[in-house]
Amino acid sequence: MALSNEVLSKEDERIKQKKLIVALKRILISLGKTVGALIVIVGLTILPLFLYGYFSEISFESLDFSSFWFFASLSIGSIIPFVFKKNKKVENYSEASMLLHKLILNNYNLSKLLFSFDSKFKSGEKMVDKSEFVIVTGLARAGTTSLTDQLFKAGKFSSLDYSNMPFLLAPNLWKKLYNPKKAKLKERKHGDKMMFGLNTIEALEEYFFKAHLNDSFIGESILTKHDIDEEIYNKYIAYQSLIRSENSYTYLSKNNNLILRYPSLRSLNKDFKAIFLFRKPEEHAHSLLNQHLRFSEFQHDDDFIETYMNWLGHHEFGENQKVFSFDNEPKDFSYDKNSLDYWLSVWLNYYDHLLTLDDSEFLLIEYQDYLSNPKEVLLYLENELSADFDLSNVQPFKNNKAIDTTNCDKAVLKSVAVVYEELKKRKVQFK
């Protein structure tokens, strides 16, 4: 599949040739390992027979291969490696499912090929592109998942959900093969009482940008600010039309990486709505720290979790955590990642840059306002989005946890306090 992926590449022929050679080399190495493994297996299987014949002074040809003891010993010997093999638990994913994810999500050119003819599988509907769409964004743990979920349930929106995995760029093709109607809900790994299932919407559109930009904005420790051109933008709009369940519906997404490409996207589209959320810095940093520790442990126990997050461009916390770089330079906060100061610095880095953007072009909402008065926030958004919401099931939340900042760097606390006050001045003011 990797070799096929490189064949589909539209890069310069010299670059393409080098990548094809690398892919071919990997195939040959893999083939060599497989052949070598088979030789070792056959050798280890036959070796005991030769040893038995040697010490018993019986010729190999005269051994009785039809006896019960031969088959019993062969069976026991085959089981032993699996008895001592330590399998790491991979929750919700079988070996076949992980292989399918790897085949599709690891190969961008293949995914883009599927994207190019996916509209053929959206039967009965004429594709209509719309410049109006809604993106909910902010630094992770700012309440973006909750608000996106509430918007989706309240209004007529279309969005990606877990059932679209792993064919994220070909949702209609995949739906022909796999279209679950109901899915059992369970709490997500964040431990925040947010429930999810196969039909739950999630931040999955980032894979579109990863594939079409070939991970050019993803560095070893940073995610860099970048522009998207008109060609990528037009493909993005076409992608949204593939996802919309009805052409009259509005595309909705949660994407916490939006800030990296927001200026160029806004220059190409004045119509879409961007909703940025922010949160009290010490509460926000504490939540990020908790998730970092939590997911680092998960990823240590299960390698697939980190791989999965990398596929989707989720580098907010955990062992694959990366910092936003708005000047495309490495970031060194001089604090341990397991300290509150580090995550306060992450908060400061993000929201200090947000204040440099033209705030007349996006909506800025404080998480606490949404927690305390979700109906009021949604009524405001209903008006802003010219939508019709069902708010019958919306209830306020409570979050009164106090965060101890006694041991934090005073200079960092002072800096985040200044930015936080400025954010509160610019936010949407509710009565």
From TrEMBL:
Q: Which InterPro entries does the UniProt entry name for this protein?
A: P-loop_NTPase
- Residues that span the membrane, as ranges: 35-55, 67-84
The protein depicted here goes by the name Sulfotransferase family protein
Q: Which Gene3D superfamilies match?
A: P-loop containing nucleotide triphosphate hydrolases (3.40.50.300)
Transmembrane among keywords: yes
Superkingdom as given in the UniProt entry: Bacteria
Keywords for this entry?
A: Membrane, Transferase, Transmembrane, Transmembrane helix
GO MF entry, a single one:
transferase activity
